[in-house]
Amino acid sequence: MMKIAVAGVGYVGLVSALGFAYHGHTVTAVDLDKYKIAGLSAGVSPIFEPGLEELLQEQLAAGRIQFTTDGASAYSDADAIVIGVGTPENEDGSANLNAVYQVANEIGQNIQKDCLVIVKSTVPVGTNDSVEAIVKEALKNRAEVHVISNPEFLAQGSAVYDTLHGSRIIIGTDSEIAEAKMRTIYADYGQPIVVVSRKSAELVKYASNDFLALKISFVNEIANLCDILGADIEEVTEGMGYDARIGNSFLRAGIGYGGSCFPKDTKALHWLAEDHGFVLRTVEAAIKINEKQKYTLIHKLRKEMPHVAGKKIAVLGLTFKPGTDDLREAPSIPNIKVLQREGAIIQAYDPIAMDAVAAQLGDESMMKGSIEEALVGADACLIFTEWDEIRKISPDTFTRWMASPNVLDGRNCFNKYEMEAAGVVYQSIGRPLARVRQLQ
Ligand code: UDX
């Protein structure tokens, strides 16, 4: 078993640190944020993620993980140091690598023995070369250091599951010594191990995320076409999904992708290509389609209700997807801002993220304690997140509580015929009410 230091306790750093501990390694996780470190040391997770706090407490009790702000000592005697710090988006869409490079420098200064430096943060192609140069430049002691690209594929809401049961482990290195050590670290994971060059590994991550983003934007465009032509996107994707080359997942039409990865990683790869004089037209299209798609509900609403001033609008679901408290690139936020600017009275509900949204928008009064409170007296209801609690709403709840039951569903949560039968004026994404079925 190895002694592993992990830099950064965000999603990637924290969940992979716990994964290493779970598989028997001795882990020290480092972060500059002393409040997060104190909380984690006491068994409190800074993020909401199913199974995370239980795993944290279990590994703390087993003595396999500890948390510290003292990077210097954590890095000094580690067999492997994992870089899992954030790479936020710069103004121009490129990835901001300041934190990665800062940690690389600190690692170099403190290494006292041969070790692996494993880059898990999502970084543009070529960054591992820079990390290697920075670490080697900063070295104060004689040590052999291998820098390995090892991207992480966890999704929010299932981060713990994804880490323990991932589809593959990508190891980017040209060194046989480093490969052998990496295989030891991951020996018990039971996941396919793919060894490729460092640059390829860096690109695997972006290409995978951007492909998935593209898949979503493609389906959303076909859904918009369904709305025009009178076809149903769920029927279309059901038919498509039987072709194994297409696959039946990630074909859910909606109001676009949000979160901390797809919006950032599409822009970062597009920016990187452009920086090399090459335009990635498919990714560019995915970005543009997604930007527009997030306002689909407002466009649909305007047809029913050209002026929203003074109207009560219920908003159900605020996070970028269910199972997380994350609001990064959540379509709900810009939509609420547009409606508020136009004078609408917002009545919002989310099972988890209400305090965070209230703080972000500086308005607590619009947050309601339950679905019913959000719906009461509303002239329209916009659904942004498919939380189970929202999917389970019975159609007559809308007719009972709303002043006029206009429901615009951005995540296709309901059966359109049941909604119509209950008297709801229901619009979703790519699922117009087909007249032929209505008459049967
Ligand atoms: C994603 C990748 O899934 C993960 O492998 C990578 O490491 C990080 O980025 P995440 O952003 O947590 O993970 O969530 P994901 O479940 O992939 O959803 C991203 C967005 O796409 C959400 O806004 C979701 O609502 C949307 N989505 C997803 C769709 O609109 N349709 C789909 O079919 C799937």
TrEMBL record:
The keyword NAD applies. SMART domains: UDPG_MGDP_dh_C. It is an enzyme of class 1 (oxidoreductase). Pathway: Nucleotide-sugar biosynthesis; UDP-alpha-D-glucuronate biosynthesis; UDP-alpha-D-glucuronate from UDP-alpha-D-glucose: step 1/1. It catalyses: UDP-alpha-D-glucose + 2 NAD(+) + H2O = UDP-alpha-D-glucuronate + 2 NADH + 3 H(+). It comes from the Bacteria. InterPro entries: 6-PGluconate_DH-like_C_sf (IPR008927), NAD(P)-bd_dom_sf (IPR036291), UDP-Glc/GDP-Man (IPR017476), UDP-Glc/GDP-Man_DH_C (IPR014027), UDP-Glc/GDP-Man_DH_C_sf (IPR036220), UDP-Glc/GDP-Man_DH_dimer (IPR014026), UDP-Glc/GDP-Man_DH_N (IPR001732), UDPglc_DH_bac (IPR028357). Keywords: NAD, Oxidoreductase. Substrate binds at K205, F250, L251, R252, A253, G254, G258, K321. It holds the Pfam family UDPG_MGDP_dh. GO terms for molecular function: NAD binding; UDP-glucose 6-dehydrogenase activity. NAD(+) binds at D31, K36, T87, T122, K264, R328. GO terms for biological process: polysaccharide biosynthetic process; UDP-glucuronate biosynthetic process. Belongs to the UDP-glucose/GDP-mannose dehydrogenase family. This is UDP-glucose 6-dehydrogenase. It comes from Listeria newyorkensis.
